[in-house]
Design goal:
Layout: E1 20-24, E2 43-47, E3 66-70, E4 90-92, H1 141-149, H2 162-165, H3 174-178, E5 187-189, E6 196-200, E7 208-210, H4 213-225, H5 233-236, H6 238-245, H7 267-278, H8 288-302, H9 334-337, E8 347-349, H10 363-371, H11 373-394, H12 403-418, E9 425-435, E10 438-440, E11 457-466, E12 469-478, H13 484-500, H14 507-518, E13 522-525, E14 528-531, E15 533-534, E16 539-543, E17 556-558, E18 573-581, E19 588-589, E20 595-598, H15 610-622, E21 628-629, H16 630-633, H17 654-662, E22 666-669, E23 672-673, E24 680-689, E25 694-696
Parallel strand pairs: 1-2, 2-3, 3-4
Antiparallel strand pairs: 5-6, 6-7, 8-25, 9-11, 10-23, 11-12, 13-14, 15-18, 16-17, 16-18, 18-24, 19-23, 20-21, 20-22, 24-25
Helix pairs in contact: 4-6, 6-7, 11-12, 13-14, 15-17
C-alpha cells in the first residue's frame, strides 16, 4: 500500500500539545505541511517516505529532543538545524542519505560514498550532486555543527541495511503476522525456520514474529525492572520470566534503564514480582481483574495531565499531580493522598565511583537504611509537596504577573499542601524569584510592585520542610527562545554535578565536572554571542535539619574546579545548584534585603531595645533557625497561623531587625547580582546519600 497521498496545509497549526510524531511508510507522500504549530514536539521520526524531497523548517521545534530520518531517498538538503541545536539529544540518519555525500555539507560531491549509491531492497536510485545554482545547496554552520556532533549516527558510518533499520531479521510477511495473532510479546517461532522469536510491533508496524535478539533482551530487561506490561508466562513462556526475575536482589538494574520515581518499582512490588516468578509465574496470570487494574493505573500515569507550561525551561504537564489523586488546582494535603505514610521514592541512581559498587547489594547497608526510614519518608513527603507546589506555581508564571502576588499564592499553597504545623511542617525558606542579573536571594518586600515581563529570566527557588528535613530545588523561567542555551547550560551542569556526587566524592572535583559542562556553552542574545560562565562565588550546599546550609559543619559544593579535598559522607543531604551567567561570573550584594535567618548558635547578648527583644522572641517561636522574610512578618499571623492563631503581625520592626543583625543574632541574606545587563540562570536538586544508593528527592517530570 502506498500510504497517505497528501496532508493538508495547516494540519499541525493547532497541535500545540503534540509531543510525538511518527510519519512512516508513505511512499508517495510528496510534501509535509508546516511544523509551525508543533511548539511542544519532542520526538520526530520521518521514515520510508519515498517521494519526499523537502523537510519543513524547524523554526518552531525548539523543544525537539529526538530526530530520526530514515529511508527518505529523495531528500537532498536539510533545513537550518539552529532552532533545535540546544534541545536535540539524539539524531539518527541511519540509511541511504544523500546529504552526507552530494555536496550539501562541504561543497564536495562524492557519489562513490555508499550513502549515495543504489539501494537494492527499496530500489532507491543513485543520488546526484547538487546543482551549483541551487540556493540552499550549502548547509548552514549550525546544521554542519549538529551533524558533526551526532556524526556516528548520521554521516559517520556506512548506511545500515534496510532490514536492520526496521529492527527485524526478515521482511514482514503475512505468515509472520499470523504467527502472533495480535498478541504482543508472545513467544513465537518464525515460519519456515526453527528460530524462536518474540512478537513485537516494530515502529508501529503490525505485530509480527521477530527473531531479533535485541527485542528479546529488551523484554527481559523490562520484566527485570518491573516496567511495561506485567509478565504473562502463558504467553511469554515461564522459563523466560523466571530467568529475568531470579536474583533480583543480587544484580544491578541493566545500564541505560530509566530509574525515576515513575519507573523504579518499590520494594513491595519487587517482592511480589519475584514471588510470582518463583512460583512458576502462575500468580502473574491468576486474575484478569488484577491485570486490568494494573493497565488502568499505567494508563492513568502515562496520560496524566493536559496543561503545558506557558514558558521555556521545564517540561511535563502542569496538572500531572492528578495522577496521584490530587485535585486541580491542588488543594488536598499531600499526607491525605498517601495515608499509609509511604511517599513516592525519588530517582534512584548508584553512587559515583568504583569504590561504591558493593553498596547496592550490601545487606549491612540495607539494615542501615531500614533504621533511617522515618527521615527518608519526611524528605519524600516534603519532595512530593515541592513537586505539586511548583507545578501550581508554573501555572501562575506569565508575563504581567506581579511577583509579590505570585510568591504569596505559591507560599499559601505550600502551607496548604504540606499541612502547616508550626515548626513540624511548613515552608523551608522564602520563595526566590530573582530576575536577570540578580542570581539569588531576591523576594519582594511589601510595597514592591515588580512585574514579570516577556524578556525576563527568572530563577524560582522553593523550599519545603517536614520535621525540619528540607527539600530545596529551583528552576529558571524564560519566554524568549534566545535564552534557551543559557538555561540548558545551568540544567546540564546541575545534572553533571549530581552524577559526580556520591559517598567519598571530593567536592573540588565535583566543581570541576560542573564547570566543564557549564563553560562548554555559549548563548546569542540580541545578535551578540556570550560565553556562558559559572558564578564562581555561589555554590551548592549540604542540608541539615532546620538548617538550609548544613549548620556548623555544613559543606559547600563549588561549581568551579577547586583543590577542596573534603568528601561527601554517607547519610548526608545535599542541594547541588549551579548558576550560569553571561556576565563576569562573580556576584556581589545588591539591593534591599528581604531574606533573614537566626544564627544557629547565636550568642547570648543583652538587648537594650525592647522592640528587639520582642522581635527575637517572635522569630525564635515562629521560625526557629529556618530562613524567613520581611513579607511574612507583615502577615496578620506574623508568619504562621498555627503558632500565632490570634495574630502576631510585626509593626515598625526595621530598627529592631537591624539591631539583631548588628549583634550577630540574625543573619541578613541580601540579593546577590552579577553586572547589570547580564543574565543568570539556575537549576537545583536535593538528594540524599543513602548507604546503598543516591536518591534524587526533588526529581520530577518537569526537570
Amino acid at each position: 500500500m502506498p500510504g497517505l497521498l497528501a496532508l493538508p496545509d495547516g494540519l499541525f497549526d493547532s497541535m500545540h500539545r503534540l509531543t510525538y510524531l511518527h510519519l512512516g511508510v508513505h511512499e508517495v507522500l510528496p510534501r509535509l505541511p508546516s511544523f509551525q504549530g508543533l511548539v511542544n514536539l519532542r520526538y520526530l521520526t520521518l521514515a520510508l517516505l519515498g517521494s519526499l524531497r523537502e523537510v519543513p523548517a524547524f523554526t518552531h521545534l525548539s523543544n525537539l529532543q529526538l530526530l530520526i530520518i530514515s529511508n527518505v531517498p529523495l531528500l537532498e538538503t536539510l533545513p537550518d538545524l539552529a532552532p533545535i541545536s540546544t534541545s536535540l539529544l539524539q539524531f539518527a540518519y541511519p540509511t541511504r542519505g544523500a546529504i552526507c555525500c552530494n555536496g550539501f555539507l562541504d561543497n564536495k560531491c562524492d557519489l562513490d560514498n555508499p550513502r549515495c549509491g543504489f539501494e537494492g531492497l527499496w530500489a532507491y536510485p543513485r543520488a546526484t550532486c547538487l546543482p551549483a545554482n541551487r540556493s540552499d545547496r550549502i548547509a548552514t554552520a549550525a546544521t554542519v555543527e549538529l551533524l558533526t556532533k551526532f556524526w556516528p549516527s548520521t554521516c559517520g558510518g556506512p548506511p545500515f541495511p534496510a532490514a536492520q533499520v526496521r529492527g527485524i531479521d526478515v521482511i514482514m510477511t503475512e505468515a509472520l503476522v499470523k504467527a502472533c495473532n495480535g498478541s504482543m510479546y508472545r513467544q513465537c517461532e518464525a515460519p519456515g525456520t526453527n528460530a524462536a522469536g518474540i512478537c513485537y510491533n516494530v515502529r508501529f508496524m503490525p505485530i509480527e514474529c521477530s527473531t531479533n535478539s535485541n527485542l528479546v533482551e529488551m523484554r527481559r530487561r523490562q520484566i527485570a525492572a518491573g516496567v511495561s506490561e506485567p509478565c504473562d508466562p502463558e504467553v511469554e513462556g515461564k522459563e523466560a520470566s523466571q530467568q529475568a526475575m531470579v536474583n533480583w536482589d543480587e544484580q544491578e538494574l541493566p545500564k541505560g534503564l530509566p530509574q525515576g520515581p515513575a519507573v523504579l518499582p518499590d520494594a513491595k512490588h519487587v517482592a511480589n514480582v519475584r514471588d510470582e516468578a518463583a512460583a512458576g509465574g502462575e500468580d502473574c496470570s491468576k486474575s484478569k481483574s488484577k491485570k486490568k487494574k494494573r493497565k488502568k493505573r499505567a494508563a492513568a500515569k502515562a496520560s496524566s495531565g493536559s496543561k503545558l507550561p506557558p514558558f521555556r525551561g521545564v517540561s511535563g504537564y502542569l496538572d500531572s499531580y492528578v495522577s496521584v489523586g490530587q485535585s486541580d488546582p491542588p488543594s488536598i494535603p499531600v499526607a491525605q493522598l498517601f495515608p499509609s505514610g509511604k511517599f513516592p521514592v525519588g530517582e534512584i541512581v548508584d553512587h559515583a565511583g568504583d569504590w561504591n559498587t558493593f553498596r547496592r547489594t550490601s545487606e549491612e547497608k540495607r539494615v542501615l537504611e531500614r533504621e533511617r526510614h522515618e527521615q527518608y519518608e519526611s524528605l519524600r513527603h516534603a519532595a512530593e509537596v515541592h513537586r505539586q507546589v511548583r507545578k501550581f506555581a508554573q501555572g501562575l508564571i506569565v508575563p504581567g504577573v506581579k511577583l509579590f502576588d505570585m510568591c504569596t499564592q505559591l507560599e499559601n499553597k505550600t502551607r496548604e499542601l504540606v499541612g502547616e504545623a508550626g515548626l513540624q511542617r511548613g515552608i523551608g525558606f522564602p520563595t526566590g524569584c530573582s530576575l536577570n542579573h540578580v542570581a539569588a536571594h531576591y523576594t519582594p518586600n511589601s510595597g514592591d510592585d515588580t512585574v514579570l515581563t516577556y524578556g525576563d529570566v527568572m530563577k524560582v527557588d522553593i523550599g519545603v520542610h517536614v520535621n525540619g528535613h528540607i527539600v530545596d530545588s529551583a528552576f529558571t523561567v524564560a519566554f524568549d527562545s534566545q535564552f534557551d542555551s543559557l538555561l540548558e547550560a545551568a540544567k546540564r551542569a546541575t545534572e553533571a554535578g549530581i552524577a559526580s556526587a556520591g559517598i567519598d566524592a571530593r567536592l573540588g572535583e565535583i566543581g570541576g565536572d560542573i564547570q566543564e559542562v557549564m563553560e562548554s556553552y555559549e548563548v546569542t542574545i540580541e545578535g551578540k554571542t556570550y560565553p556562558v560562565k559559572c558564578v564562581r562565588n555561589l555554590c551548592g550546599h549540604s542540608i541539615a535539619p532546620y538548617s538550609i546550609h548544613g549548620g556548623k559543619n555544613g559543606k559547600s559544593v563549588p561549581i568551579v574546579k577547586t583543590n577542596d579535598d573534603t568528601k561527601m559522607e554517607e547519610g548526608e543531604v545535599f542541594a547541588i545548584e549551579t548558576f550560569a551567567t553571561t556576565g563576569r561570573g562573580y556576584v556581589v550584594d545588591h539591593g534591599e534585603c528581604s531574606h533573614y535567618s537566626k544564627v544557629l548558635d547565636a550568642p547570648h547578648v543583652p538587648l537594650r531595645l525592647p522592640r528587639a527583644k520582642k522581635l527575637l522572641n517572635h522569630i525564635t517561636r515562629t521560625f526557629g533557625t529556618l530562613p524567613w522574610c520581611r513579607r511574612w512578618l507583615d502577615r496578620e499571623d506574623g508568619g504562621s497561623a498555627t503558632i500565632n492563631p490570634k495574630g502576631a503581625k510585626q509593626e515598625r520592626y526595621l530598627v529592631a531587625l537591624q539591631n539583631l543583625v548588628n549583634m550577630g543574632i540574625v543573619t541578613a541574606h541580601p540579593p546577590v547580582a552579577d553586572i547589570k545587563g547580564c543574565y543568570t540562570a539556575q537549576f537545583e536538586h536535593s538528594f540524599i546519600l543513602r548507604p546503598t544508593c543516591k536518591e534524587i528527592l526533588s526529581r520530577g517530570d518537569d526537570y
